[in-house]
Design goal:
This protein is α+β, with helices and mostly antiparallel strands. The chain is built from five helices and five strands.
Amino acid sequence: MSMHKITLKVNGVNRTLEVKSNELLLNVLRDRLFLTGAKYGCGIAECGACTILNGDRSVLSCLVPAVAADGWEITTAEGLVDKDGNLSTLQESFVDNAAIQCGFCTPGMVMTSTALLRENPDPDEEFVRDYLRGNYCRCTGYISIVKAVLDAAQRMKEGKQ
C-alpha cells in the first residue's frame, strides 16, 4: 500500500501526516488525531454521524479518502469550542433545549447545523428540517433539535454569542 504525505489544518492547527491510499478521512481524524466527535455510523453517507466542516461546507468524512482532503481546512465538533473551553452558541442551545439524548448523532447534527447557520443565519423551521434531512437521530424525534437550531439562530441575531 503506497503512502501519501498530506497537510490538513484541523481546528486551526496545521498537521502533516502520512496516509495510506485507501485510508478514510474519518479514520485519520479519529484514530490518528484522536478527534472522536465524528462517528462511524453507516459508512454510506446515510446517517450524518461523521459530519465535519471543510471551510463552511459540511462533509461526510466516512466517504472521503484522506488523500483527497490534502490542503483542507477542517473543523470538527471539538473545534467549535473557544480557546477557554466555552461551547459555541449552537452547542449551548443543544444543551439548553434538550436536543441531546444518547449523544451519538449530536456532533454530526451540530456540525451540519453550524453549516446551516453559516449559510442561512435566519432560517425557518421548514428550512432547518430540510437541511437536517441527511442526519439521523434515533432518540429525540428531531423536535428538540430543530428548536435548538432556531433558538441558536435567534441568540446569534440578538448578539448573545
